[in-house]
Each structure stands twice: as C-alpha cells, then as structure tokens.
Design goal:
Layout: H1 2-11, H2 35-51, H3 57-93, H4 100-133, E1 136-139, H5 146-160, E2 167-169, E3 183-190, E4 198-203, E5 211-214, E6 222-226, H6 227-232, E7 243-254, H7 266-280, E8 285-291, H8 296-306, E9 313-316, H9 326-329, H10 356-362, E10 365-369, H11 375-387, E11 391-398, H12 406-416, E12 420-425, H13 433-445, E13 449-451, E14 458-459, E15 462-470, E16 473-481, E17 493-500, H14 503-517, E18 529-531, H15 535-551, E19 557-562, H16 568-579, E20 583-588, E21 605-610, E22 615-616, E23 619-623, E24 634-638, H17 644-648, E25 650-657, H18 660-675, E26 680-683, E27 689-691, H19 700-704, H20 706-722
Parallel strand pairs: 1-6, 8-9, 11-12, 12-13, 14-25, 17-22, 19-20, 20-21
Antiparallel strand pairs: 2-4, 3-4, 3-7, 5-6, 7-8, 10-17, 11-15, 15-16, 16-17, 18-25, 19-23, 21-26, 23-24, 24-25, 26-27
Length: 723
C-alpha cells in the first residue's frame, strides 16, 4: 500500500506545492505505512478492550463480537479486493510464483492468526470462568446433566429440526449454495457396509439464537448450549439409515467488492444496486474458517469446491463466530455491564413548551451525542417539521438510516399532508443497500421526491433542511451533522450536530441540495466546505496558512479528529506543516497511513486513537489561525474523513463553528481527548501503537478516560441548569 500511495502522490502532480516537502527526495515516503496493516492494528485495539479486565465481563464479550464483525468486513472488502487484484496480476504477468499482492495477503495472515489465538484464550480462560462465577454457564454437550440433555433433545425436535435443510453432495445433488457469513456443519456420511465417504451440509440457522438457554438445576443459574452442538448431537435424526463418520463446523466469507459500471439516470442507479446485491450473493469465497482439528477430507473438499489456497483457510481456535454472542452480551446483569447511560435533553430543548424552531431562531445550538439526546434534538427537528403547518418543505440526505426509522415515517407523514419532501438516499451505502432500497420505494409510493445521488459519487454528507413560511417571510433551518440519521447508532457513536438558521449557512445548504437533486456543475458555497468541490483545497489552504504563521512567529497549530487518515495530499500537507514546526495533533480512531514522530518528517505530529465504550465517529477540525486564545481559532465539524474517497469521490460537508460558546464545547472535547490516558493509544515512529497508562498523579480526565469524563461533564451541566 505504501508504494500505491506514493505512486498516487506522484501521478496526481500534487497541487499543494508545499515547499518543505521536496518531491525529488524519496525519504519522505518513509512517513507512509500500509493501510490494511494499519486497519488490522485498529482491530487489535478493539480486541484489547475484550482482553482488558478493567472492563465489565459482558462488555468484554461485546468487544469480542465487534472484533469478529470488523474482521468479517475486512475480509469481505479488503481481502476480497486484494485477491481479485492478485488474480489479475497473475493473468497479466503469467507468473506461477507469488506476486506482490499475494505476499501482502500472507503478511496480513501472519498478523491475523495471533489475534485469533488471543480471542480464543480470552474467552476460554477468562470470560467463561467469569460468567460462571455469576451463574451463567456456557456448556459443552458432555457437561450437560441427563435431565438437560433430555430437554435439549426435546427443544431440538420442536424448534430446530423443522428449520433445518440437510443438503447432500452426490451425482444427483450438486454442491449446495452457501450464503455469506453462514455457519454450517459438514458431515462425513457412509452407507452401511460401504467405505465411500459422502458429504452433507447442514446450515446452522441464523434466525435462531446461537446459544440456547436450558433449564438449570440451580434456581439462580442460567445454562446455555451452542446451537451447533445441539444439531451435531441430534444429527442421526437428519440422516436416518446412514452412518455418521465425522462432522466439522465451518464458516465462509464471500467477497463484497462488486463493481458494475454506472449508467446515466436515477432509475439505472437503482437497477445497478439491485444487480450488485444479487451478484454479491454469488461472489467468490475469500475465507474458509474451520473449527479446531477439522476432518481432513471435509477440509480438502471445501477448499476444492471454493477454489481456495492454504492462505485462505483458517483453523480457528475457540468459538467460530463470536458475532453470535450479542444476545449473551446483552444480558441484564448489572455488575457485568457498564453503568447505564441515558442521554440528556439539551438545555435549549428542555421543557414541554420548547419549540425547536424558536430555539434555533434565537441562536444556533450544538448537540453532542450520545451524551445529549438524539431523539429530543435531531429526531424532534424532523418530527416537528412534519407536523408543523408552517413548514412547506423538508429535505434530507440518508446514508444509513436503520430498520425501524422514525425519520422516514416523519417524511411520509409530511408528504401525505402536502409538504414538499425531497430525500436523497444513497443506495450504495455498503451493506445498507437493501434497506435503503426499501425505504426509497416507501417514500416514492406517497409522492416524495427521491433522488439516488450523484453519478460517480457517494453522498455521505449528513444534512437536513426545513423551509418554513413565517410572518416575515420564508426562513430556512438546517441540521449539519457528523453522524447518520440512525436512532440506534446515535446511542453508541459519538457525533456532533449543528442546528442553524444563519442565512449564509442555510443558503449554502439550499445550494448543496439543488446541486444534489438538480444539475449544477459549479455550486457556490460561502461557509460550507463541500467535497469534492472545495473541501480538500480549503483544508490545504488552511494548512499552508498555519505554516506561514509559524514562519512569521505567530501561534500555529492543527488539531483534527477523524475515523481514518489516508488522503495523500492531506498527509503531505501534515508533513510540510510538521517540517515547518507546526504542532499537529491527529486523533484518528481507525487506521492512519501517515506515521508520526519520524525525524525530519513528522517530528511534530502526534497520532492517537481513542477506543472504548462509544465508537468515536465525530469529525472535528481546528486551526489556530495565528491566535493565542484557542477559542479565536477556526473550528469545523462535518462528515468527511481525510481519505481520498471522502475528499474526491464522495459528497461531504463541513460547517464552521462560530459562536464562542460552541467553540468552548468543541475545544473541551478536543482537550479531553488529548488528555486521556485511560482509553488512548499513541502511535510510535515504527507505526505501532502503545496504550497509555494513567498514574496516580494524573488528572481525573486522564484517569477516567474520554467517555466517562464527558458523561460526567454532561451530568454536571444538567445539575447547573436545574439550579
């Protein structure tokens, strides 16, 4: 990936021309690291939350499930893409031995395998015994009592057996289709008095809990058995008259990188996405996971059928699919869970008489989720607009909206009452395509204007616009956020949202919607930074300004918070700023392709990652702009990470934070993040991360960590408000 980034930097003939970076000197390339290995490092930090005994037991199981889901997505997206590229290289070069991509796949495998061992060790030696101490017993079949086995057989007969479909492989039965991320039992069967192996597959139904609760002989205890074990030990009912020689539990992962060329109209986009969804079901298998000590014949048969090499096969210690443990992680056991958090209603919206439009009209206000209520702010904004007879139009962008979405219901209600409703639904939001297609059709049924995005770009910005007829004329109200309009993730992801009726800013939002729903080659924006129109250019210009301020002896500093850092031009800008002596604080939750602390390159760059109870999702950008007082600097929030795809291939928007009170809130967030020594990891010059450890001399913020600190600060504000 390093070579790939470097090639892009040179091929693009960078516009930045930042003088401190000499493109004829190849040493600056050392500041770049591999994107995919960086992502695996991030997921290792997620796994560490499961290993960390400072976290409650069920929360640790939750992190095992998150780690597993993350790794699944990595294989579907990145490994799938790299395998396709590897095959293309082989065809192009007509080589038999390893090619560069294949070598990279092997490198990643060597990183993944130790993490799988850590995961299994944590579950077996720490979490299962910890759960048992609290009377939650995850049992193997041979640990069941006779009474429990009898009840397990009965449960199988009534609830599992009818849902199973045994599929054989023989001349009359082709190899069965297997869906992505499906877990199956592969049985080795024989006809009595025969030595010929026969294969049969039974899918472990994902519509049933993967751990089945059984009655316990102790009143206050809960006992569970794996659904896969339940099927295995009742298999003779599935294959009467056959001899069962062996069975192996396995799981497959398919490539999700389906590329179909875009056409030139909205209806075609919908058709294209529907076709992508159909094709994705049949994409090649990129990973085969097998339980420990698999049957060699089944292993070989599956590898042959899926056309896999040894590098694609993982014999997984411990459980095969920890993502199936979400129900266990959700058990209501107070001492094994984080302290409950109920988001607080923002002060401006507290009280039954609060009118959200009057509040916005009296001055912009800022919300921070999940510390402050998403329902009482963002959801209420659209709900109130749908019910308000003065509202004449509602416009929204939808990237990920969820299943049971109040937003779409509000839009439907608004359209049914005659309001103009325009909704830009991004049909190509990865893994949400089917859900978004559904809601698009529902909105179209009631006459809403549904647009499917801009050809060649994903619409990732999170904006909503309400147009209202008031006594003094038309007034526009806008919400510009960093997170999706998704009620469930709003309780788990940290995000910021700005509500405003500032005419300049709302005019920008109007212009952006016009560009998205109509045709506009050069939309004009006064305050918004919009990708791919002006965002990268503006961020680079602000970086250059910090460099010039540093040279002039003025205060200079850059702080930004994103999910990922990869864009070559922004990385080069950071290098140039560091070489000029500008301090650059990068808060990057996921992977960073830029390395920090390299002499002569990124000496003045710090890269930290915050991992914990909530998923850090907000994007914040700060530039000192020559000001001694941080609150006199420039602040922006928005939807874009500093990745090439966000700045070049997506529609994104960032809004300025201009009120001093709001700047104080955002600076407080950044200050807490940078002082954290409980949840923070800091990158070393070699690209590895080191978890910070608080000491007794550290401040409360350092010892408590970001999420606990911000919860306490939010509660403190509530108490002050009540007084």
């Amino acid at each position: 990936m390093t070579q790939e980034i470097t090639a892009r930097l040179i091929d693009q003939n960078l516009k930045t021309s930042l003088p401190e970076t000499d493109l004829t000197d190849n040493s600056w390339r050392d500041a770049y690291s591999d994107r995919d290995l960086g992502w695996l490092q991030f997921n290792s930090r997620v796994l560490h939350e499961a290993l960390d005994d400072r976290n409650p037991g069920l929360e640790r199981i939750k992190f095992l499930a998150i780690f597993t889901s993350n790794l699944d997505e990595f294989f579907m997206k990145r490994i799938g893409l790299l395998r396709t590229r590897s095959q293309a290289e082989r065809l192009k070069n007509k080589v038999i031995g390893p090619v560069p991509v294949q070598q990279r796949l092997q490198e990643m495998r060597q990183v993944i395998i130790p993490m799988l061992k850590q995961r299994a060790k944590c579950f077996r030696r720490e979490l299962k015994p910890l759960l048992a101490e609290h009377n939650i017993h995850l049992l193997d079949w041979d640990q069941l009592t006779d009474s429990q086995r009898e009840k397990a057989h009965l449960f199988f007969n009534r609830n599992v057996y009818p849902a199973l479909t045994p599929l054989a492989l023989d001349p009359g039965h082709p190899f069965p289709y297997m869906s992505n991320l499906s877990t199956s039992l592969g049985f080795v069967l024989r006809v009595p008095d025969s030595e010929e192996n026969l294969f049969a597959r039974v899918k472990v139904p994902n519509i049933l809990p993967q751990w089945i609760q059984l009655d316990s002989e102790m009143d206050d205890a809960r006992s569970y058995i794996r659904l896969a074990d339940l099927i295995h030990y009742n298999a003779e009912k599935l294959f009467p008259g056959m001899t069962i020689i062996d069975s192996t539990l396995f799981r497959i992962t398919r490539n999700s990188e389906v590329e179909i060329e875009d056409d030139d109209d909205s209806e075609s986009i919908r058709t294209i996405v529907a076709e992508e969804l159909r094709q994705r079901k049949f994409e090649p298998v990129v990973r085969l996971e097998l339980s420990e000590d698999p049957n060699p014949w089944v292993r070989s048969l599956l590898m042959h059928q899926f056309d896999l090499s040894e590098d694609d096969v993982y014999e997984v210690p411990g459980e095969l699919d920890y993502a199936g443990m979400w129900p266990l992680a959700s058990l209501d056991i107070k001492e094994l869970r984080d302290e409950p958090w109920n988001p607080i209603v923002p002060a401006d919206l507290a009280g039954e008489e609060a009118d959200i439009f009057s509040v916005i009209k009296s001055g912009d206000f800022l919300v921070h989720h999940p510390y402050e209520s998403f329902d009482a702010s963002v959801e209420q904004f659209i709900r109130a607009a749908a019910n308000d007879p003065k509202v004449i139009a509602i416009k929204m962008t939808v990237y990920r909206v969820g299943d049971d979405t109040p937003f779409v219901r509000s839009l439907i209600r608004a359209a049914e009452t005659g309001k103009q409703v325009a909704c830009l639904i991004e049909l190509k939001a990865r893994f949400d395509e089917e859900r978004n297609l559904h809601w698009a059709k529902e909105l179209e049924k009631i006459g809403a204007h549904v647009v499917y995005g801009v050809l060649g770009l994903k619409t990732h910005t999170k904006i909503a616009l309400v147009v209202r007829q008031e006594s003094d004329g038309i007034r526009c109200y806008a919400h510009i956020g960093t997170g999706n309009y998704h009620v469930k993730t709003a309780r788990l992801y940290t995000d910021l949202g700005l509500f405003t009726c500032d005419p300049m800013l709302t005019t920008d939002v109007v212009n952006l919607f016009h560009a998205l729903t109509g045709r506009s080659r050069e939309p004009n924006f006064q305050k918004l930074l919009v990708a791919p129109t002006n965002m990268r250019e503006q961020f680079l210009e602000k970086t250059r300004r910090e460099i010039e301020n540093k040279k002039a002896g003025k205060p200079a500093m850059i702080i930004f918070k994103v999910n990922q850092l990869e864009d070559p031009e922004m990385c080069q800008g950071i290098i140039a700023a560091s070489q000029a002596g500008v301090q650059v604080e990068c808060i990057v939750r996921g992977f960073s392709c830029l390395r920090a602390g390299l002499p002569g390159l990124t000496d003045n760059v710090t890269i930290r990652s915050i991992i914990g109870r909530f998923l850090e999702h907000s994007r914040i950008f700060y530039f000192a702009n020559g000001s001694e007082d941080p609150l006199d600097g420039e602040f922006y929030i928005g939807s874009a990470d500093w990745m090439q795809r966000n700045l070049s291939n997506r529609v994104e928007a960032c809004a300025p934070i201009e009120l001093r009170a709001h700047k104080e809130r955002v600076w407080e967030i950044l200050d807490v993040l940078m002082k954290d020594r409980r949840q923070a990891w800091v990158m070393n010059p070699d690209g590895d991360y080191e978890q910070l450890v608080p000491t007794d001399d550290d401040s409360d913020i350092s010892r408590l960590g970001t999420h606990r600190t911000l919860m306490l600060l939010t509660q403190q504000r509530l108490k002050e408000r009540i007084k």
